[in-house]
């Protein structure tokens, strides 16, 4: 016969069975965003007011493109997980499920739009450089 203490049965179990995992993900993504967002604002701010060619050339460089992709990926995942917790706390039933699906769909849609725009800017800049040669 196996003997399990109360502590042994509770290890790794939050209210949902994965509370610790969620807490650590949100903590790590918050710390990452605390560094990424100010850097992104500074980088993005330097592109504001430029012509389309200047903005495309700016975001075609590796650092601004990678930074923008990271901010988008981490930020949208953080948003989706945080909104899911909020919705689980304050809604019930089918409404909860529908809203969680909507929030995840919205975050994935926004991520896809930003990554597509970045890819298109990199391709446009590469094509423009090839035409100028």
Report on the architecture of this protein.
- This protein has 133 residues and is an all-alpha fold.
- The chain has one domain: 3 helical TM bundles of succinate and fumarate reductases.
- Helix content is 83%, strand content 0%.
- Helix 2 crosses helix 4 and helix 4 runs antiparallel to helix 5.
- The longest helix is centred in the last third of the chain and has 40 residues.
- It is elongated, with a radius of gyration of 21 Å.
- The model has no long low-confidence stretch (mean pLDDT 88).
- Keywords: Electron transport, Heme, Iron, Membrane, Metal-binding, Transmembrane, Transmembrane helix, Transport, Tricarboxylic acid cycle.
- Pathway: Carbohydrate metabolism; tricarboxylic acid cycle.
- It comes from Rhodobacter aestuarii.
- It is found in: Membrane.
- GO terms for molecular function: heme binding; metal ion binding.
Summarize the structure.
The chain has 133 residues and is an all-alpha fold. It contains 5 helices and no strands.
């Amino acid at each position: 016969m196996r003997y399990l203490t109360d502590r042994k049965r509770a290890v790794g179990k939050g209210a949902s069975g994965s509370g610790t995992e969620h807490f650590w993900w949100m903590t790590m993504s918050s710390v990452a965003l605390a560094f990424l967002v100010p850097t992104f604002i500074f980088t993005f701010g330097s592109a504001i007011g430029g012509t389309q060619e200047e903005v495309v050339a700016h975001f075609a460089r590796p650092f601004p493109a990678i930074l923008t992709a990271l901010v988008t990926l981490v930020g949208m995942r953080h948003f989706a997980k945080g909104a899911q917790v909020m919705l689980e706390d304050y809604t019930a039933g089918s409404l909860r499920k529908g809203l969680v699906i909507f929030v995840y769909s919205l975050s994935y849609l926004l991520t896809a739009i930003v990554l597509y725009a970045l890819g298109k800017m990199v391709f446009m800049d590469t094509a423009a450089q090839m035409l100028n040669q």
